[in-house]
Amino acid sequence: MIKIAPDKKKHFWVGLLLGALFRIFTLYFFPHNYLLGIVITFVLIVVFCYGFELFSLVTKIGHYEILDAVAGIVGGSIGMGLILLIEYLGTAS
After folding, report:
1. How confident is the model at residue 90 (pLDDT cuts 50, 70, 90)?
2. What is the pLDDT of residues 27-83, one digit of tens each?
3. 22-59 in b/e burial notation, b at 16+ Cβ within 10 A?
4. Where are the alpha helices (DSSP H) in 1-93?
5. How far apart are alpha carbons 7 and 30 in whole angstroms?
6. N- to C-terminal Cα distance for the chain?
7. 0.85 cut: is pTM over it?
8. Is the Cα torsion angle 78, 79, 80, 86 positive or negative in sign?
9. Which of 6, 7, 19, 2 is nearest to 75 (CA)?
10. Is the model's pLDDT at 6 over the cut of 90?
């Protein structure tokens, strides 16, 4: 079994929450442009997750590690996907 570091799990869960919140945000502001909302959501996830790591690198507060950003982006993509699934199920019925 693969052992995942606790900080990667934290970045994953925070990314999942951010992805869901960003998708809800873009759904509110771009309700008629589905694809643009998805692209903006993903860009926001990447900017925030990697931006946090760059902030750690520049300020020397915290620890810079690219895999933390990757864990956040993966979590954010799944969070966005969950909201997309809820959207789909809501319109299908």
Report:
1. confident
2. 999 989 989 999 999 999 999 999 999 999 999 888 889 999 999 999 999 999 999
3. bbbebbeebeeeeeebbebbbebbeebbbebbeebeee
4. 6-29, 34-59, 66-92
5. 33
6. 39
7. yes
8. positive
9. 19
10. no
